[in-house]
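Quick question: what would this complex look like in 3D?
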Amino acid sequence: MAADEIQKPTGININIDGRDLQVPAGTTIIKAAQQVEKFIPHFCYHPGLTVVGQCRMCYVEIEGQKKLATACSTTVTEGMKIKTDSEFVKRGQNSTLEFVLLDHPLDCPICDRGGECKLQDYTYEHGPSRSRMTEDKELLLKHETISNNVVLDQERCILCTRCTRFSSEIDGRAELVVNERASKSKINVFNGQLMESPFSGNVVDLCPVGALTSKDYRFKARPWELRHFDGLCTGCSAGCNVEIHTKHRHPGITRPDKQSPTPEIERLVPRENQMVNDWWLCDAGRWGYHFNNEDSKRLYSPMIRRNQNLESTSLKEIQASIEAVSGEWEFWVWDEAPHEEIAWAKSLLSSWNKRGRKVAGFNPLNYSKKFMEIWAAQASQPLFSSPVNYRSYKKIVSQLESYRSLETLVPILATTFGPRVRNKTLLWETRSSKDFFDAKDDLTSTLYLMDLPRTEGDLKLYKSIPEGAHALPLLNHLNSRGLLNEGITPVEILEGEMADAHPRGPVFVFAQSTQRKLPKNFVNYLKQAPFVVIADSQSGKLSDLANVVLPLELLYETKFTATNVGNLRQVSEGVQIRNPNYPAIQRGSTTVVSPTLQLL
Amino acid sequence: MGIESKFGDSVITTSLDWVLNWGRANSLWPMPMGISCCAIEMMAAVGPKFDMARFGSEVMRFSPRQADLMIVAGTLTYKMAPVVRKIYEQMPEPKWVIAMGTCLCTGGMFDSYSVVQGLDHIIPVDVYIPGCPPRPEALIQAVMKIQEKIKRGKGTQPISRADEPVKLSVPSITTPIKKTQKESIILNMGPQHPSTHGVLRLILEIDGETIIQCVPEIGYLHRGFEKIAENKRYHQFIPYTDRLDYLAPLSNNVSYTMAVEKLLNIEIPRRGQYVRMIACELARISAHLLSLGTYALDVGAATVFFHTFDEREKIYDLIEKLAGHRFTTSYTRVGGVSRDVSPEFIAGLKDFLKDLPQTLDEMSSLLTNNRIWIDRTRGVGAISPELALSYGITGPNLRAAGVKWDLRKDMPYMLYNEMDFRVPVGTHGDAYDRYLVRSREMEESIKILHQLIDGLPEGPINADVPDVVIPTKQETYTQMEALIWHFKIISEGFKAPVGQIYSAIENPKGEFGFFIKSDGGNQPARCRIHSPAMRSVAIIPELVRGKLIADAVATVASLDPVLGEIDR
């Protein structure tokens, strides 16, 4: 046997459209063709889903075979000669499209997918230009709500079953199914129950036509009106890669309310990254961008509180008012603050130190120090050094055969998981830190997703986790991991401690408006401070407490860097979505610091 | 019955406000500020069919100091803005402003660096007329709106518009030439002058009536066509071609689509070619009529203008039947035309061709042997064949100079080689010859049109190239496949193969061509427009040096430049 394996060639020689290439055994034609940059049109094939060969769009001609073969389901064999654009193939593609279009409704002008529809693209490229069909089209369900966010149109559906496969294979809930058989087949939710999956938005991305559309994006824009930016989702510390789609309206036309139109984010769609989120994105992140568009909330000039009211003022006046405050300053950095802002905060801290102001440092609670000591100590132990690293962590997860897709779901907030997912060998569980430490489970055979210790009591137990245990800490906010790397304890961890703590003096907060809720304890904590400086981009509870407000750009407006839970440092492109009339302090691209710092 | 009963029949009583308003409203004196395409429709409103004189405002004169209503018509560029502002300031209070056309409302389709995005950026506006261009009826309605506004006002109170806010501060106007003689003065003819046929500015240095030097200054209507073409898909640019030589939009449409078809290597069916030739010849007659009408007007013979505008209205009615629009036609499509000709159109065209020779005769009897006309034009602005060729002049101006060069004959395109027509040629190359050549060309066009109507073949009008030619509405509304192809061709556009071509046709003004370079995308990588009128303007300094100002007027008018095409 061993000898056989050695003799086995490392690759299989094939020929695609006259080009020779070598691919590993077991490769499908559709993947092999990518190597020679031959795109084979397809509807049902998706690299993240099982292959079903259902749509018959990916026809190729294989020399010596009488019939066309589907490229997605045929694996290569030695010496295979493949043609992707012969007359035979073209006829096959043409007929497939004609067949698919038989019952397709004439919806393009009112369909959300129009312009980015695969059916349109392929029909224009490979399909017939005129119809031979004179019969009436089949009438099915139109705009049927199948979840809080997704709308189904059965007439437009071409039955590629990408959505049902996602629902059963990736999501695991199998909420979408194919009902009836053959020409009567149609997609619907199982038994009329609305989808509850927190990943339902992905079926909208997967749908190659306009059968599944998201309520959030319906009728908001045409694809060619959108500009695309490569960004990061700011919802949690997974750091899912997204494409931000913005619509820029004509700046020359003022609206009836005399405001010139502001560019807006219209949607987020996931961007493939095999190290982070594969092809997927959770609903919370996907539809949590709306706060960015709330233009009326924007802070657009430096403000100072006089007689209970915030009034616009100059940076000079703000500087003077800060100079006048005495006491030991505390600096607080938000868990969403990107590395650029942390650098800004740090340079500000050192300059204040040099000027002889009393400064207590970042997020300065007693608990913070103790936690950071343990964090640093644990960093060398296998518990944290390996599993927290996303790649090795993936390895563990890959053992979960039946739920292999969960790997992509892990970094997302604990509450999105089902109660318990069992596998032959591993137990996958989510627990609060307290429960986790109280449990007397065998830590080496169970994989835990656990909250970080929030109290001193937790901390002791935390230290007692044995070597080789499979426990992954959950970090819930965009740059929590980045803060830890920078030696700052995330606010999230300090929340427990904050309930009883009091600020020592004036507080400077580098806040960041996101979709997250404000921690109650932190608000109470700030209320006790004699003087509060808030650097933020939108007004809200924090600015209501502030004595001084410094306006910042929104996260999406600057190019920012954040470290995700897997310790991967990622950059998000800056998007122009600000009302041009609102000047905001720019955070700078990397470590460059805003000019306002000099004033302070 | 109060006090009136004692005054008798010849006395009425009313308020002073009412009398003043009544007087003002019914004797509006418009100051025409014609900048581009819309100005032609403004002229049409003054013409015999629409007859603006009904409002007591037949006195459309280029004299701001007497006028009280400014009708701005056309695309306002940043270069033109100070001129408009200055003329507006020269008008006495009270005064009113009409912004005619979409360009002056919002910038319109010209969202380019050189175009002011609305007239209200520089002066206060009373009435906005949307439309590109608005029909003359719309202008008349705007005048009525102004009348209503005046009647609503307090006539006795002083009206000042000085404090009305405008968004843009405009720079002052510069004069980029220096005097060469002590005694001479610099005189600006244009950019707002009735005799420069648009916003051409001739900077003249004169000694008495004699012109010492002349520098044509262009760019007052620079709308950035070539750059716009690079940012529009091939089909999207067709409406822009209407606004190039806005006296012959049909012909421009044909020229552009022919260029794209050459790039794509598409052959048009015979019927499509015939329809396009009908369009081209109609455009030629229309453009020549306008040219001769304004030419005669500039030289002092106003009657001809009314005759030609009457005929032009008939052509506009025909074009409306043909293309659906009377002015900016956008008639052609890549691979054909937007719609087939109807029997009504053919019947109307036949009637028109019956009437037209009579009008041409009348015009000829007014001018050809007219002593004053001959004195004003013969020997004026004479171009020798060598000079004409060295300046690259084409079209009637070249043929008047004695060079027999007509692309329809010498580099035949479409099916002109099957047509029987002559190419009229002048002998002296002067303004008089140019008049004669244009008149004869119209007669030849009538001949061609007769042949086209008689020989109009049956068959399709569009080429059978489904990935380029837009499906018909009928197909789009009933067939899924056609709907998708329509959607894709419109929203994404077809891709042209990599390459570059130049294609030109014989426009009314001469060789009008497009150079298109494609990098394989759905937009041109570069589009250059060859403008015949550009060459005609370049030669003006040669022709008017040492001549009288009045000769300059006749020279410019006979050369027939159009600024939409020159400034591009």
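Answer marked as accepted. The longest strand of chain B covers residues 499-507.
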